[in-house]
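Hey, quick one: can you model this chain's 3D structure?
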Amino acid sequence: MDQSHIRNFCIIAHIDHGKSTLADRMLELTGTVNKRDMKSQLLDSMDLEREKGITIKLAPVRMTHKGYDLNLIDTPGHVDFSYEVSRSLEACEGAVLVVDASQGIQAQTLANVYLALAADLTIIPVLNKVDLPAADVPRVSAEVKNLLGCGDEDILKISAKTGEGVESVLNAVVERINPPVGVHGDPTRALIFDSYYDDYRGVILYTRVVDGELKKGDTIQMLATGAQGIALEVGALSPTMSPETSIATGEIGYIVTNLKTTRDAKVGDTVTTKRHHASAPLPGYKNVKPFVYAGFFPVSNEDYNELKEAIEKLSLSDSALQFEPENSPVLGFGVRIGFLGLLHMDIVRERLEREYDLDLVVTNPSTDYQVVMVSGEDIDIKSASDLPDVTKIREIREPWINGEIVVPSEYIGSVIQLVVSKRGLQKNISYIDERALISFDAPLANLLTDFYDQLKSVTSGYGSFNYELSGYRAEDLVRVDFYVAGEMVDALSIMVHRSESQRLGREIVTKLKEVIPRQNFQVALQAAIGGKFIAREDLSAYRKDVTTGLYGGDVSRKKKVLAKQAKGKKRMKRFGKIDIPSEAFTVMLKRD
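Sure thing. Here's the predicted structure for all 592 residues.
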């Protein structure tokens, strides 16, 4: 294909603004997919994506329109998967920005626009859902014009659901987006923007060829890892794999390799060929760093190896997943996994339970902390139970984020109150027409569990939130431990700010009282900082009526039997081992 007839673009938007539906209509209009094979969310191939109605993995597809090859990458909208968005932007020259005509610009819309502008892409603004009764086209058009500085004629008004105006989007892609620049005769350089492991075919790479070309049968090399392999098959995705003899400059396609693991071909690496070897790699992506950690333990210890294998397989297609083995006296052997957010964690948990048929106990999610020792040594800890002896610690630093909340003006007060209650610092308020953009700094640990839900409830569902990690700050942090019947349960330990420790200790002990079943003897549930107890609740014992066989006679007989029972309970208490149910370990996630 002549390079001037190629257009590479992606669709970016906030959650639920209609990216996948627009992609469906484009595939239908260009005849890429037969009418009989068409289904909604066609590019969302995972069952979870279809059930939750969200895009989790980016999906590339090639379409033909008026003699032009259009390579589209459908991207996720949720903040936890923004690393997928930044990768797709690098492989494109333009982006279609979809904005819901009833909701207007949201936090993730802004975040994606900034990413696209940083990648120097041509942005085509599209107002979707103009057929809805609640659509307010003039207001949302004004917001888009303020954001992008474009004219009214540049904004396309469409309905992806009915297909109205979708052809104008395809025409705009051809007219406004620049063709790829690259030199066909130069040494081969292709950027890997996604890779996954196929059980039958091995490692498959999604690449964008920047210079030169890749042919079937070429010996390929990764410039970063140095790994070598063979391109067993190359071709385009339309949307299924269609093999070709080669993929040339400017094209987006796939390579089936003989590599055994995706570790050999990392996302962001540059592929070159032995025939036309390049020396300088393309600028890749910055390594994505997880900042939410949780322990995953099998309910039965015999399943530990299955869990480990399942996570290894999952990590082959999810480059953001990082894990290491973990051992807990209460829960046995497990794995501590790093995620990009709670939704990411939720999806990994569901995939492990569904696709690999595992029964799991998941501990409370926490973030990582930097500990500076008195000796000057720096260590990273990923769970509260790893905290060294307090006397040897000089300071503990916790991660802070820069957050942005877009919300209708009337909710500003309640949003600022919410941010302050999470130890956040409000920095700036700017206005986009009738809505406010509130910028703030806050400790990540306080936003982990239910910040998003609370934001939705105080803003009647209108608030949207986006964040990025800003750095680590030294704070007065303490480790709160929990004791059940005098035994410390390390999997329940949490790191909190000293000012919040009493309140949280009380809250969690009260929640544990609800989930731990009563025993035949009294059980004490306690929270402590170091050697000092800060909260306590007692689980009262079951009482069996041992006096039922007695009738009449002296009261001393009754007392004698009850004393015997008390003695037995005392002995049980000494030997009693408490079975703690799995719900106790996710007590932080339980809503009040």
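One thing worth noting: The chain has 13 helices and 30 strands.
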